[in-house]
Amino acid sequence: MIRLKDCFKTYTKDQDKAASPQETVSRVRACLAETCEGVLAETDRVDTGRLGIPVFVSKCGPKAAEVMPTRKQMGKGASPEQAEASALMELVERFSYFTFWSNEENFEKLTWSEAAAKWPESIMPVSEVLQSVGEEGMSEEDAVRILDLISWRFHPAHDVASGKDVHVPLDWFKKLNEFNGSSAGNTFEESILQGACELVERHVCAVVDRTSPELPTIDPATSDDPVLERLCRCFADNGVKLILKDFTLGFPVPTVGALAWDPSTFPGLSEIVYTAGTSATPEKAAVRAVTEIAQLAGDFETSRVYEASGLPKYTDPEQTEWLQAGPVCRLDALPEVEDENIRTELASLADGLRDMGYTLYSVDTTHPELGVTANYNFVPGFLFRERTPHASLGMFVGRALAEDAPFDEALEGLDVLAQVYPDAHFVPFFQGMLALRMDDIMYAADRFADAEPLQPAREEAALCAFYQAYALTLAEDWADAVPHLDRAIGYDADVKEFFNLRGVCRFRMGEYNSASEDFQASLDIDSGNPEDLANLGLCHKFMGNASEALDYLDVALSMNPGLEWARPHHEELLASQG
After folding, report:
1. What angle, rounded to 10 degrees, do the helices at 426-437 and 393-404 form?
2. How far apart are the first and last CA of the chain?
3. Which of 174, 336, 375, 568 has its CA 20 to 30 Å from the CA of residue 236?
4. pLDDT surpasses 80 at 528
5. What is the arithmetic mean of pLDDT over 525-535?
6. What does the radius of gyration of the chain's CA atoms come to, in whole angstroms?
7. How many CA atoms are closer than 13 Å to the CA of 254, on its beta-carbon side?
């Protein structure tokens, strides 16, 4: 159980911490070496030095790779020590999170009604589950009927504002938020405050992205913070345009949005980078946003392609004109909850959220062997950009039924959802997903086709078209799959999987040049994908471009030596060149 206590800051230069970054690096490295050998492979500084803002990565060792989908984590900070500490704590956060979820002993698996009977005084209110998907108008009776279609992983969560422990269906919030809200720190207070600030950041960014409001532009010259002044000068001295915006939207803690691009290297060697930072004070929020820009930008000279998350990517400065509008404001016009005691800052944030109708919860996910504090935090009702704005209780329960439930339970459950949500756009889609699990490929394709015209937005329609194609590829019907992928890309051209699958289809049809264009389009979205680099190499091999093929396969196999299907082609090309 989490029990919060006083936590006084000992480091306040560029971030507020209970220990200096040097202490954190030393302690965490020792813990990893002594109790969790094989989690960390190495840390490495990866910025070019152009901006003078350090960026580190922590690379996963074999023990971390067993439970984590990512292989490296990035860390940011105004100093090399803080950037390395950030990269290490990102590794701790994710390793702890995925290890926690892999251990079924952490949970009691119950239906909602079973849990309510077991913990009648301490179960989360049904209203908060409905709030989490913006469906407050549904009756509690219907909500419980839907929740009872699934056995949930219940676990105690700490209500930070009230200090009470509440039993929650934790995998419900994992389905909604994935690992948004995971955190690590020197103490519980530091970790939870950081995780809560990131949740606020993701929420306000989602609101800004969906509504495009006119927001104040922050004049960084109104701050006398020496760290922020130096960071902004790093951009100005290199000709990089930097715009800071007030994204706070009335929340208790400040959020600073940041937009940056380099006219001298864009678009050939750099991108427009758009992100945000939230912290207890405006200065620290701005520092987080600006160092995040540096983390994503590759010093605006390396052709690096970053993956958008909390905010979208822009490809033309003209697309940002709406964001540059708005009155100019001082940085100190933003709110703050600053105190020398991190516990007091956390309480101010939690109380402020409660006054707005939101509850901040936290779960202890500390790895039992590692012993470095880690948490999973969530706020029912908070948004993040990647989640559909058309969410509902039925939609996420339907997803759980289609993906995880035994076939009989899933079929019956989807029938119940069809009764509660007649003509719902998601019911035929999840019937198609369940049919894929049951290897009924053609029925699945038919249900995806039925679902496509019902979708409320282009992104959802694109998924329906994609899965029609995917079902046909399972039957190796490559040619008939392509028109569905053309349609998916027409709906939404920012999804790498659409281009990848169309490339596979064209490759199977012997259309190597067209396939190479699709794999390159996928790489334009995610340049670090070794599978598509290898695919592109095979296309060039069969087009007779041996040198280009070898180059792509070299890079792909160096990034992922486990691509065994590509290795014989690589060896054949090496042999042909002597």
Report:
1. 10
2. 64
3. 336
4. no
5. 89
6. 25
7. 26
Residue whose pair of structure tokens reads 């930070």 in the numeric block: 160
Q: Is 448 exposed, middle or buried (0-12, 13-18, 19+ CB in 10 A)?
A: buried
The residue assigned the tokens 């050939």 is: 268
- Measured CA to CA, the distance from residue 141 to residue 570 in angstroms comes to 60
pLDDT tens for 291-344 read 999 999 999 999 888 888 889 999 999 999 999 999 999 999 999 999 999 999
Q: Which helix (H) or strand (E) holds 397?
A: helix 393-404
Distance CA 105, CA 95 (A): 17
Joined tokens for residue 269: 């060697």
For residue 447, CA distances in Å to 119, 381, 435, 439 come to 40, 31, 9, 14
Give the whole-angstrom CA distance, residue 522 versus residue 527: 8
pTM, entire model: 0.90
Amino acid present at 40: L
Residue 328 pairs in a beta bridge with 217
Instruction: Please state the rounded mean pLDDT for residues 467-489.
Output: 97
Contact 146, 198 (CB under 8 A): no
Q: Residue 578 pLDDT > 80, yes or no?
A: no
DSSP readout, 148-168?
A: TTS-EEEEEEEETTT--EEEE
Element spanning 260, H or E: strand 255-261
> CA 378, CA 395: separation in Å to the nearest integer?
20
Distance CA(50)–CA(300), nearest Å, equals 8
Task: Provide the token pair at 530.
Answer: 């070794």
Which pLDDT score, from 0 to 100, does residue 136 have? 82
Beginning with the edge strand found earlier in the chain, give each strand of the sheet holding 217-219 in spatial order: 273-278, 255-261, 241-246, 217-219, 328-330
Structure tokens at 106: 């952490």
d(CA 363, CA 356): 22
Helices 426-437 + 407-420 axis angle, to 10: 170
- In 2-138, beta strands by DSSP E: 40-45, 55-60, 72-76, 108-110
Q: Mean pLDDT for the chain?
A: 95
How distant, in Å, are the alpha carbons of 313, 401, 470 from that of 463? 20, 18, 10
Reduced to 3 DSSP states, what percent helix, strand and coil does the chain have, rounded to the nearest 5? 55, 15, 35
Question: Which residues are bridge partners to 313 per DSSP?
Answer: none
Nearest to 29 by CA among 19, 41, 17: 41
Q: Which helix (H) or strand (E) holds 567?
A: helix 567-576
State the pLDDT at residue 179.
84
- Contact predicate 210/266, CB 8 Å: no
Give the pLDDT confidence of 243-302 residue by residue, as tens digits.
999 999 999 999 999 999 999 999 999 999 999 999 999 999 999 999 999 999 999 999
Residue 452: how many other CB atoms lie within 10 Å? 23
Q: What percent of the chain has pLDDT over 90?
A: 92
The number of residues in the chain equals 578
Please state, in angstroms and rounded to a whole number, the distance separating the CA atoms of residues 402 and 420: 17
90: closest CA among 182, 192, 227, 222? 182
Let me know: does 334 contact 250? Beta carbons within 8 Å: no
